[in-house]
Design a protein that fits this description.
14% strand, alpha/beta, Rossmann fold, 32% helix, 7 strands, 249 residues, five-stranded parallel β-sheet, two-stranded antiparallel ribbon
């Protein structure tokens, strides 16, 4: 598992340990019949009979250490999705592998125009999870419109795969009727309507109340992040008609 905030990839592999080299070394040392004892990695009383020779495995029969991955989940976004790849992997089966590129403080344009080469290689068995917009909305109507356009253009660009868009959470550090929160609601409403027009796109709503946010009220706390990643994982499972995790948190 790699460090979160850069690129996170979760693989499950089996470690294969072969005793032939160790046995040969012990036999070479003594050639006796005593049972070997290993203490802190050091062979003691290593007299042992030579083991029967076995034929090496043919090349085609060698253990395959590669990991089979049926579904790739790529996550891009701002700090709201920080740590999400690790948590989402906990709610998906081993046929999925999730990775993330998180850009705290980035606007939507900086987020959606990343990883383009990799995204073009994805297919219908894969998913892109994207969020952004918090850093675009600052009482500037034109910037809000531009942010929405970038998000929709992103979804229209990658029809080769599945898109899950996460909307913008309300600013609980501001009054609910503040201009920025009204902009967020307008942005989210338009994003929801537009997503319904795209057959390969789904929307996850980050409509959590105040208790799911940190003291400064801008970012989700641990319980809130757990809830968000469960909702995202449930939507991913729904796309592939798989059993979704329990949403209680």
């Amino acid at each position: 598992m790699n460090q979160e905030d850069d690129v996170i990839t979760v693989n499950n592999s089996e470690n294969i340990f072969t005793f032939s080299t160790l046995n040969n070394a012990m036999c070479h040392q003594t050639g006796g019949n005593n049972i070997p004892m290993i203490i802190n990695g050091i062979v003691k009383n290593s007299d042992i009979q030579n083991p029967p020779k076995t034929k090496p495995l043919p090349p085609h029969a060698k253990p395959d250490k590669s990991i089979k991955c049926d579904h790739k989940v790529h996550i891009i976004g701002d700090s709201h999705l920080k740590g999400s790849a690790t948590k989402i992997n906990q709610y998906l089966n081993t046929n999925f592998v999730a990775s993330s590129v998180i850009k705290p403080g980035a606007n939507i344009k900086q987020i959606v125009y990343s990883q383009e080469t990799e995204f073009k290689c994805l297919g219908k068995k894969d998913v892109i999870v994207v969020n952004g917009g918090t850093n675009d909305l600052d009482n500037n109507t034109e910037k809000t419109k531009t942010a929405l356009v970038h998000m929709l253009q992103f979804a229209q660009k990658y029809t080769n795969t599945n898109i899950i868009t996460v909307n913008i959470p309300l600013r609980h550090d501001l009054a609910m009727n503040s201009e920025i929160n009204l902009e967020i609601q307008d942005f989210n409403n338009k994003l929801s309507k537009s997503s319904k027009l795209l057959s390969h796109a789904d929307l996850v709503e980050m409509n959590f109340n105040r208790r799911y946010f940190t003291k400064h009220a801008l970012h989700l706390n641990n319980v809130g992040k757990k809830g968000l990643t469960k909702v995202i994982a449930s939507q991913i499972n729904k796309i592939f008609n798989l059993l979704a995790p329990e949403l209680f948190f």
